[in-house]
Amino acid sequence: MKRVLTVTAFAGAAWLAKRAIGRRIDSGSPLWPLPALETPVSGYSSRRWIPALIVSRTEPADGVLALTLESPEFPEWDPGAHLDARLPSGLVRQYSLCGDPADRGRYTIAVRLVEDGRGGSREAHAQLLEGAELPVRPPRNRFPLVPSRSYVFVAGGIGITPVLPMLRAATEAGAEWTLLYGGRSRASMPFLAELAPYGDRVTVVPEDEAGLPDLNALGALGPDTAVYCCGPAPLMAAALAAAPEGTPVHLERFAPAASGGDAQPFTVELRRSGRVVEVAATESALAAVRRELPGTPYSCEQGFCGTCQHRVLAGEIDHRDTLLTDGEREDSMLLCVSRAASDHLVLDL
User: Fold this and answer.
1) Is residue 99 within 8 Å of 165, Cβ to Cβ?
2) Are 342 and 315 in contact (CB under 8 A)?
3) Cα–chain-centroid distance for residue 114?
């Protein structure tokens, strides 16, 4: 009996190790050190890829692609959540979920075509066709809808995507809310048909008809009203400036955390390569490392996908990502956004 228990324990440990190695390979990260094996509270690892099928492709506005994905493995999600999608080329991009959380096994995302962007949106519009497979990671939520008696939502263009599920949730909760929705033109503003049933709760402001949205009304809000804003950086900055002190303002942006004036230069020693690189205050560690090692992999450059995760052998890390677990942060970093909290880091590169 004792031997059976020993064999069983050994087999279980081997299975866990094999699973951990598989996850690390899938994430494109170095095999050592292995990631922590603890299961997240949600029960779904944020690092694993879920094969999803594109069952619908529509164009809700000029230059906007909406995709409906299906998979029996999709976990539940809450309004404000987004997911990582791995495009056919291997690029990883982030998209807000804009469907109904009650529609189990089905996710909806939307992609705005950005002609002068980094290429992800062009690839999505050209290659993500109905019937194709699109691997995605389980949703994460950095923009959760907090309970409130009253909300003011402000959206600009494709920024309407995380707001749509919030409107449904606020309506079901019986909360008071209004939406101010701006865009370049009506033709470019997605999901106007889905907003029409809400009537005068929604104010649509096409720039070519009415100019920029007027945010002055935010100045009269009190602390009992929560403001949610998603859209271009100038719109979010204006909403934050217009809201009075004490009014909770929640912003959604897919960009690295702003460093403000606190970014300092530092040096990075590449231990295995025998080189030392200088990282300026105005550049990322990834950019500096790639000057010496051009083949260093990366994708999102925003601290979401984990492609540029590398082991840190020495030095204090200033973590600025939204992905790594506490265990992973002990000895690794994402080069695209995180920096040194000291003058020097040593990387296993």
Assistant:
1) yes
2) yes
3) 18
Residue 111 and residue 67 in contact, taking contact as beta carbons nearer than 8 Å:
yes
Distance CA 170, CA 147 (A): 9
**Is the confidence at residue 37, as pLDDT, over 60?**
no
85 HSE (CA, 13 A, CB side): 26
User: Are 138 and 44 spatial neighbours (Cβ–Cβ below 8 Å)?
Assistant: yes
Q: What percent of the chain has pLDDT over 90?
A: 68
pTM above 0.90, yes or no: no
Q: Residue 201 belongs to what H/E stretch?
A: none
Q: Which residues of 84-105 are buried (b: 16+ CB within 10 A; e: fewer)?
A: bbbbeeebbbbbbbbbebeeee
CB-CB contact of 6 with 13 (8 Å): no
126 touches 87 (CB < 8 A) = no
Contacting residues for 245 by C-beta, under 8 A, at least 6 apart: none
Residue whose tokens read 């040096």: 267
> Distances from the Cα of 172 to the Cαs of 149, 167, 169, 176, in angstroms?
12, 9, 5, 11
CA 189 – CA 25 distance, rounded (Å): 39
Helix (H, G, I), strand (E, B) or coil at 186: helix
Contacts of 264-267 spanning 24+ positions with Cβ under 8 A:
264/339, 264/340, 266/339, 266/340, 266/342, 266/343, 266/344, 266/345, 267/343, 267/344, 267/345
**Residue 183 class from Cβ within 10 Å (0-12 exposed, 13-18 middle, 19+ buried)?**
buried
